[in-house]
Amino acid sequence: MRLLLLTLVLIASSARLYSQYVNQNVLNEIKVKANETHSDAVIIIQDGKILYKDFFEQNDQPLYISSVGKSLVNLAIGKLLDKKLIDSLNQPVYTLFPEWKQGQKKFITIRMLLNHTSGLQDHSNAMVELEPAPTFQVENVINIALAAELSSKPGTEFFYSNKATALLGGIVEKASGKRFDHFFVDEFYKPMNIANYGWIQDKSGNPTTHGAFVIKPSDLIKFGELILNKGVYNGNRLISESWIEESFQQAQKFDIRFGLLWWRKPISEKRIIDKEIWASWKKAKVDSNFMSKLRPIKNTLFDSNQLFYEALNNALGESWITLMNEKLSGTLAWSKKVFSPQIVAYYGDGYRGNYLVIVPENNLVAIRCADHVNFDTATDGFGDFVELVVKL
């Protein structure tokens, strides 16, 4: 009896200790914003226990996760390495696609496709070239990527590239002998007991790996657990721990926030309108009256985005967002971002506010999915989901 009582006391104590690690105010804020932004699914798991799960009167059905799928493509490339189907990330792409053994393209490596430094001409909005209306479907995304011109010398610039990620689907097929979707099902879906899924494909049947995955939210979060457990799922190793570690490192010298198809969340982000930003505005002949209103905050380092936005509101008034977009159109930056070197989370980020988040220090994973027809870009994005999850 004493042993039983002691056991019950320990269980109760553990439950209280567990609850102390969760910021209930932040969790409540996530719940409120999840509803306000018309989420289709939010799941948060810590220490293997569900903190929050809601499908918002929707079924747990396969949803399109947009560019979050890029982070899953990362796993497929890691599997090629684990199985020794490619030599290394520094292997030139032309070894698999010989038509690239010419000009500057012969210097593009698999790593450059993963870290967005390939130099391929592209548009950050996939709907411009890879998903044109009204069908949102092209003949062959891999061929479009292969035919792309270069907008910069390989390895010299960071530019978020849908074409580069689309080509990774072709890399998987060339190296493994299986089309990307077949390879991914065999290596991940089957051992993870994922059976209800779909794929976005081009007219030739290729999964469009810049955004191919249609998956149930309850299955998507399994990949967070796989990553959190360093490549092991249900006691089975599906991907090497070394691959996960490499994927989460800063993958190029241009942007601290990006690994190998995974985003990295710094513990802090500061903003400043410094002399370089100011000079770029002058060179572009930005309206002098507009600039004079912002002169008082020039060279001020703001400790958060919120403080920066409050300063813009004070300087320009309530219509500051409209004014900033109007006066700084084109490629002009609003400010320079200064990031802390300390990284607290890793995440996949997709259009419509789709997220897969891993917070190793808190042993926590989270997903947010949005795939509804009437999505409103002004209200439904849930842009601070990652930040709130980190605060939990």
Q: Could you characterize the architecture of this molecule?
A:
The protein is an alpha+beta fold. The chain is built from 14 helices and 13 strands. The strands form 4 sheets. It has a 6-stranded antiparallel β-sheet with strand order 2-1-13-12-11-8, sandwiched between helices. It has a 3-stranded antiparallel β-sheet with strand order 3-5-4. Strand 11 and strand 12 (about 355-360) form a beta hairpin. The radius of gyration is 23 Å and the shape is globular. The protein starts with a helix and ends with a helix.
Question: Short summary of the structure?
Answer:
With 392 residues, this protein is α+β, with helices and mostly antiparallel strands. It contains 14 helices and 13 strands.
Secondary structure elements and pairings:
Elements (H helix, E strand, L loop, with lengths): L1 H19 L3 H13 L4 E6 L2 E6 L8 E2 L3 H15 L27 H6 L25 H7 L14 H15 L3 H10 L7 E3 L13 E3 L1 H12 L3 E2 L2 E2 L3 H7 L15 E4 L2 E4 L2 H9 L4 H7 L10 H12 L3 H8 L8 E4 L3 E8 L3 E6 L4 E6 L15 H7 L1
Antiparallel strand pairs: 1-2, 1-13, 3-5, 4-5, 6-7, 8-11, 9-10, 11-12, 12-13
Helix pairs in contact: 2-14, 3-6, 5-6
